[in-house]
């Protein structure tokens, strides 16, 4: 009865979402305070019902109930408990249930926690959120039922994709989905503001924590997903411009632009139209990502659905939501006042330039991702890979970084160009010194990595500019957040540029006892031995490694694993992490003549990529906490920065 109870909870949640929308519509149209007051508890109950449905699905996986089709297709009785739990969303139907659960919980949180918006704007926001939820409830219940029964029950399950049997599965999808849902809430706030013609600082202050939260979780999800693919897939790269990777990057780019705009609107009453439009664009990108991952048009380890009918359903939802939002935007944008003006040379001007460049990069990624899909529909097979994205987006990103460095040094409203140049001298000098140091040490590297390292150094110096000549103990928490987030971008950029410029790779067919070189390391294959895990067996290499001629020897043990359910062979890399980089080793196949394929990489400073991602997320979290604290203080005044 657990499956039936879960399905019943979903149907009830869908019914409450329909009721929530109807009550919001009637309450606003008829100005009925009694009806509007009832919307909050309905949203709260809807959230509880989605949490119940997800908890019941997890219970089915933990119990290995093979009479449920989803469990039989994606689990196994011998699978470790952690992967039984995480496996509940390691598939199409379960991940969609996780999505609507977070969506319902977010709606409940808005209903319970938001008390600063005028009632009509809040109720319109909850009504928009209910419409979004209704579409996904319909998708689950009509085409992706996670509680469908299997008759007769399977003797055991087919197992979970071994590439997903990793702790990353417990962390990566939930963080991304929280980010996506945070964007949907921001979109609902924008719709509510347009419906009630109340686009102003109050709306922006209500939206800002959701944008910040979504941005933080998207950053964490992308960072964790990058590292998960890096160590799990055994290909030695941290980003491949895979369409499904791009599906998470595009909402992040839009959310980054939205974050800057909503902050200007909340504190300076500017960029009103920008804020609303970017909320629509950010949600559009999250819907495009959902379509790419679940439509069946992509073949990727990240993609779930393989049924084109599901893709058609999501495409219809995308057209409905985004088309409706654009129509509403077109009808109501004329009612949005301009807000306060500012000069081109000002911090607002720099933020607008950043938004334009982020939009250009977003357009490049979107076109590069969708063009092969559109071409394939006309019978033309082509591939758009890293060379295109790196050459097209790389230079734009470097210009963006340069403007980002100038932003914190600019004054609000208006500034003087000569004064800006004077304040920029230190970051420029730091960038020049870093570039000169790289050139002297290496004799020259490719132009994009060279500029990346130099600009990263300059951005790091400019990032701490808001702390110059300030009492650090009295510096607001959101200022620390901005500093740390910008510093994190500099750190990540330095890691990306260093990995691109200095990586050394060696591919060898090694015999036992033979030493091989990669970068400053000597790697010797000492033997191959069997290894056994909870639900896999493996061949494990014993690699003795030494750095330089006189370093101490240490051991790495990469594996070639075999999973029986489902039958799959995976490469498990062994990585040595050091202060200045990582040694990455992968065991390949035997040639039958006593030699084993080894892939060896030395990646200087590659860990800065993920360290920077963590700093970006930390900065966003501190900024969110600081803003919430500031706005709850009685002394807070509109327009105070």
Q: Can you tell me about this structure?
A:
It is built from 17 helices and 10 strands. By secondary structure, it is an alpha+beta fold. The strands form 2 sheets. Strands 2, 3, 4, 5, 6 and 7 form a 6-stranded antiparallel beta sheet that branches. It has a 4-stranded antiparallel beta sheet with strand order 1-10-9-8. Strand 2 (515-518) and strand 3 form a beta hairpin. Helix 6 (119-143) packs across helix 7, helix 6 runs antiparallel to helix 11 and helix 16 packs antiparallel against helix 17. The longest helix is centred in the middle third of the chain and has 32 residues, at 201-232. The radius of gyration is 26 Å and the shape is globular.
Q: What's the Cα radius of gyration?
A: 26 Å
Total count of helical runs of at least 4 residues: 17
Distance between the termini: 55 Å
- Give the helix level as a range of percent: 55-70%
Q: Unreliable runs, pLDDT <50, ≥5 residues? A: 301-305, 635-641
Give the helix/strand class.
Answer: alpha+beta
Shape: globular
Biggest beta sheet summary: 6 strands, antiparallel
The average pLDDT is: 90
The oligomeric status of these chains comes to: single chain
**Share of β-strand residues:** 5-15%
The SSE string, one letter per element, is: HHHHHHHHHHHHHHHHEEEEEEEEEEH
Number of strands: 10
Protein name: Heme lyase CcmF/NrfE family subunit
Pfam families: CcmF_C, Cytochrom_C_asm
Domain Cytochrome c-type biogenesis protein CcmF C-terminal: 315-627
InterPro entries: CcmF_C (IPR032523), Cyt_c_assembly (IPR002541), Cyt_c_biogenesis (IPR003567), Cyt_c_biogenesis_CcmF (IPR003568)
């Amino acid at each position: 009865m657990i499956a039936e109870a879960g399905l019943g909870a979903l149907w009830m949640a869908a019914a409450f979402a329909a009721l929530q929308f109807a009550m919001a519509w009637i309450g606003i149209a008829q100005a009925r305070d009694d009806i509007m007051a009832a919307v909050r508890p309905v949203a709260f109950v809807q959230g509880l019902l989605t949490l119940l449905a997800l908890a019941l699905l997890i219970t089915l996986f933990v119990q290995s109930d093979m009479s449920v089709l989803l469990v039989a297709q994606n689990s196994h009785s011998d699978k470790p408990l952690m992967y039984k739990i995480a496996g509940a969303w390691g598939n199409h139907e379960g991940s969609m249930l996780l999505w609507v659960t977070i969506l319902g919980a977010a709606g409940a949180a808005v209903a319970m926690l938001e008390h600063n918006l005028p009632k009509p704007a809040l109720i319109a926001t909850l009504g928009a959120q209910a419409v979004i939820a209704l579409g996904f409830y319909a998708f689950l219940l009509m085409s992706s039922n996670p509680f469908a029964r299997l008759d007769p029950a399977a003797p055991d399950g087919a197992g979970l994709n071994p590439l997903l049997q990793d702790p990353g599965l417990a962390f990566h999808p939930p963080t991304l989905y929280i980010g996506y849902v945070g964007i949907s809430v921001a979109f609902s706030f924008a719709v509510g503001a347009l419906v009630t013609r109340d686009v102003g600082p109050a709306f922006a202050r209500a939206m800002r924590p959701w944008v910040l939260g979504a941005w933080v979780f998207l950053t964490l999800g992308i960072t964790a997903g990058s590292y998960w693919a890096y160590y799990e897939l055994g290909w030695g790269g941290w980003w491949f411009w895979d369409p499904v990777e791009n599906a998470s990057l595009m909402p992040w780019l839009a959310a980054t632009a939205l974050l800057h705009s909503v902050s200007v609107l909340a504190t300076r009453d500017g960029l009103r139209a920008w804020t609303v439009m970017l909320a629509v664009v950010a949600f559009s990108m999250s819907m495009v990502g959902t379509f790419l991952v679940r439509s069946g048009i992509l073949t990727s380890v990240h993609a779930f659905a393989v049924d084109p009918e599901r893709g058609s359903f999501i495409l219809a939802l995308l057209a409905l939501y985004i088309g409706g939002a654009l129509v509403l935007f077109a009808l109501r944008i004329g009612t949005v006042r301009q807000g306060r003006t500012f000069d081109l040379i000002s911090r607002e001007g720099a933020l607008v330039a950043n938004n334009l460049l982020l939009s250009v990069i977003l357009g490049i990624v979107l076109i590069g991702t969708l063009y092969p899909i559109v071409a394939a529909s006309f019978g033309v097979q082509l591939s758009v890979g890293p060379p295109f994205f790196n050459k097209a987006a790389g230079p734009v990103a470097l210009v963006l970084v340069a403007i980002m460095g100038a932003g914190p040094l600019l004054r609000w409203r208006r500034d003087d160009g000569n004064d800006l140049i004077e304040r920029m001298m230190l970051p420029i000098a730091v960038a020049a010194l870093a570039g000169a140091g790289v050139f002297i040490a290496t004799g020259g590297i490719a132009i994009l990595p060279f500029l990346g390292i130099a600009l990263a150094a300059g951005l790091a110096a400019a990032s701490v500019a808001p702390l110059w000549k300030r009492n650090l103990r009295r510096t607001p928490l959101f200022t620390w957040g901005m500093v740390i987030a910008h510093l994190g971008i500099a750190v990540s950029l330095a890691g990306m540029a260093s990995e691109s410029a200095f990586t050394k790779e060696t591919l060898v067919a090694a015999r036992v006892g033979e030493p091989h070189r990669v970068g400053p390391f000597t790697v010797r294959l000492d033997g191959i031995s069997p290894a056994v895990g909870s639900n896999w067996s493996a061949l494990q290499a014993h690699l003795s490694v030494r750095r330089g001629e006189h370093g101490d020897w240490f051991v790495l043990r990469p594996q070639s694993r075999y999973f029986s359910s489902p039958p799959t062979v995976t490469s498990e890399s062994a990585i040595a992490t050091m202060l200045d980089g990582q040694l990455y080793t992968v065991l390949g196949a035997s040639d039958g003549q006593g030699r084993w394929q080894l892939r060896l990489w030395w990646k200087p400073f590659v860990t800065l990529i993920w360290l920077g991602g963590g700093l970006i997320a930390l900065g966003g979290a501190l900024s969110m906490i600081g803003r919430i604290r500031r706005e709850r203080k009685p002394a807070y005044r509109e327009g105070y920065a």
